[in-house]
Design brief:
This protein is α+β, with helices and mostly antiparallel strands. 46% of the residues lie in helices and 20% in strands. It has 23 helices and 22 strands.
Length: 696
């Protein structure tokens, strides 16, 4: 090795100056560039001709794509508008109307704007029984098998609004396509009917106005529905036939479907030998709008010029590429040998396993640089291995988990960290920290906040926080993560992390937080938390009603007096479970104290609150309470109030419900009393100490 790098031997081995000049890489590249220039000059004219034809084709296809995208966007907006009209009309119905056909028809008659955009509108029950139908000229006849129609079943059973093309029975064969829009009628208890409307595809509210934007070229436009059938075609006999059989459209439409682009509005242009096809999606109806133009019309005589230009350019470019390849191979052969030698070094095979190439000029200088780098690299690796060994020994004696990450992967792992994760050290090295997140494949509490960690490391060079990690046995623990960049100026240099198990601390904090907001006996929300939620519900209401129930137990005191307080506590638990079983997950049931409870019902009407209050009375009345061989019968008096502008604070609304509950007790107990929306008159207000005394 020393003989190759000594100044004396290196100087004697160098070739003469003329060989060095001719052997320089720069000169050879110049020669190659000159040859390439001569070749490229010969093909410049033909290439430009071909490029002009190609650009013309792309511009034509893009122009068509832009115009079709405009039509698709306009058509998508019109479909959404029609759906919106039907949805707004559906909001005027309720389940009680389904047994009153005149009431349904009256609602249809009250919406002239909807009947102006639809040719007909109708309402039917879930079993397909028509309740009312109107068109611009009066009532219409619906199909006798309405319940079996796919568009009806989709709305009634799957609760999916649909747009379905077809022809009504009795119409002539060449009549325009009629679209049927359906919308399920749903309330909090589920579906109770279907509302539908029909409109001709070529009506001013759909295609006729959208096609106006295309002018004289609108005759070449087709619309394909979600089932792949044509809704429009220049050949009317092709309407409602498969689009794959349409000349010029079939192959491009098949590719469009294969790429999953049937719902994208963005225009797409495709050119074939015979046609230029532009397409754009209508996502609201799962349709596709396309335009088919023959290439003869688009290019005329340019098509023949294009094919001849391609043949000539192909031959010339092929010859030029072959010549350039031979020149490059000959020119860079020494550099190829040097590359092979470098690959041997990088593979760790050692310096004696391959020969260094002998060359003059820049490549010779590069060889000598590689030789020096090889020696420095070997020394650096030896030093690096020594430092890594010393660092690993330190990490193995640490009492906390310590890892060194580089490019997000474990590089060094302490012994304590292997115990925390339950993996051997060899299984951790090279793996990403994110792989151990408790919810690695879905968002949620406990996931590693990777975005937050990355931002903190970039901005401050450090991060501290908590996350849940998963061990090898599948168990999850909470970890305190403290990370620092090895080089604050360069995050790519890696980070060092200290990891501690803080599961016990988090569980203690969680239990303390729960105890502060819940009643320890019934596990319901306590009074302070209930008032906070009520205040929040009143502050956030934007037109939606907020209902409140005050529940006071009747005849509860005999349980404590006769069977003891332990029996009374058990009775309260059973009653609490009965109350909670009657409400929605969004509602809140609380124990205010003693035998008093309250229920918060956000987004609940007065009628539903009354119905729920009656069910609560029935649930409490139906409890079988048996203690010490005796049966006890408990009932509930319920006061109901619906919050509006008359109740600005939670305490005012709670007081109104309390007074309504007092009236229920005074009126015979085991009943529901609704407070008026106007503030209670002064002569109806009973002091709280008198009301509470009267309840028991």
């Amino acid at each position: 090795m020393s003989t190759h790098t000594s100044p004396t031997s290196g100087a004697s081995a160098r070739p003469g100056w003329w060989r060095q000049v001719l052997g320089t890489l720069k000169l050879r590249v110049v020669l190659v560039a000159m040859a390439a220039a001569l070749v490229s000059g010969g093909v410049a004219t033909v290439y430009l001709t071909h490029e002009n034809i190609a650009v013309t084709g792309r511009l034509f296809a893009q122009k068509q794509a832009d115009e079709v995208e405009l039509v698709a966007d306009m058509l998508n907006g019109r479909v959404e508008h029609l759906r919106g009209q039907l949805r707004v009309l559906g909001d005027d119905f309720n389940v009680g109307m389904m047994s009153n056909a005149p009431a349904v028809e009256a609602v249809l008659m009250s919406r002239p704007a909807t009947r102006q955009v639809f040719d007909s509108v109708w309402v039917a029950s879930l079993d397909g029984t028509p309740l009312a139908s109107l068109s611009r000229s009066g009532p219409v006849d619906l199909p006798k098998d309405l319940a079996q129609q796919p568009y009806f079943r989709s709305a009634a059973e799957k609760l999916i609004p649909t747009v379905s093309p077809g022809r009504w029975s009795g119409e002539p064969m060449l009549s325009p396509v009629v679209l049927t829009f359906t919308q399920p009628l749903v309330d909090t208890h589920g579906p109770y009917g279907v509302i539908g409307g029909t409109v001709a595809l070529h009506s001013p509210h759909l295609l006729s106005s959208a096609f106006t934007a295309l002018g004289q070229f609108s005759t070449g436009v087709v619309v394909v529905d979600s089932n792949g059938n044509l809704l429009t075609s220049s050949d009317v006999t092709r309407v409602l036939k498969p689009a794959l059989a349409e000349p010029g459209l079939g192959p491009v439409y098949a590719e469009w479907q294969l790429n999953g682009s049937t719902t994208a509005i963005e225009g797409l242009g495709r050119a074939t030998d015979d046609f230029i096809v532009a397409m754009a999606g209508v996502p609201s109806a799962q349709w596709m709008v396309g335009r088919i133009t023959s290439t003869d019309y688009a290019f005329g005589l340019l098509g023949k010029v294009q094919r001849r230009a391609w043949l000539i350019v192909g031959l010339i470019v092929g010859l030029a590429a072959l010549l350039a390849a031979l020149l490059v191979i000959w020119t860079l052969r020494p550099l190829t040998l040097l590359r092979n030698r470098a690959e041997v070094l990088l593979s760790g095979e050692g310096e004696q396993q391959a020969n260094w190439p002998k060359a003059a000029g820049e490549i010779g200088d590069l060889v000598r640089v590689f030789q020096r780098v090889t020696r420095d690299r070997a020394a650096h690796r030896q030093s690096e291995r020594r430092l890594l060994g010393e660092m690993q020994a330190i990490l193995d004696h640490a009492s906390v988990g310590i890892v060194v990450l580089r490019h997000g992967r474990f590089e060094l792992v302490s012994a304590h960290m292997t115990k925390l994760l339950g993996y051997p050290q060899a299984a951790l090295v090279g793996r990403r920290l994110a792989r151990f997140a408790a919810s690695a494949n879905r968002a949620g509490e406990g996931d590693l906040p990777l975005a937050e960690i990355g931002r903190a490391l970039r901005e401050t060079g450090q991060f501290e926080g908590e996350a849940s990690l998963r061990r090898a046995d599948g168990s999850v623990f909470w970890a305190q993560l403290v990370g620092r960049s090895l080089d604050p100026a360069d995050a790519a240099q890696g980070q060092i992390w200290i990891v501690s198990d803080v599961t016990a601390d988090r569980e203690a904090r969680t239990q303390l937080s729960w105890s502060a907001t819940h009643d320890s006996l019934t596990e319901l929300v306590n009074r302070r938390e209930f008032e906070a939620r009520l205040t929040d519900a009143l502050a956030k209401r934007t037109g939606a009603e907020v209902a409140l129930m005050f529940v006071d137990l009747d005849h509860f005191k005999p349980i404590n007096d006769t069977a003891g307080h332990a029996a009374g506590d058990e009775a309260l638990k059973q009653i609490a479970r009965a109350l909670a079983s009657q409400v929605r997950s969004a509602d809140t049931v609380a124990r205010l104290g003693g035998d008093e409870f309250a229920v918060l019902l956000p987004g609940c009407s007065l009628e539903r609150a009354q119905s729920l209050a009656e069910r609560i009375c029935g649930a409490v009345r139906g409890l079988q309470l048996s203690f010490g061989g005796r049966q006890f019968q408990v009932s509930a008096s319920v006061g109901v109030v619906v919050g509006d502008d008359g109740f600005a604070t939670a305490s005012a609304m709670l007081h109104a419900a309390d007074m309504a509950c007092y009236k229920a007790k005074a009126g015979g107990r085991d009943r529901v009393e609704v407070a008026g929306r106007i503030a209670l008159a002064a002569d109806n207000v009973v002091p709280l100490h008198r009301a509470n005394a009267a309840r028991h």
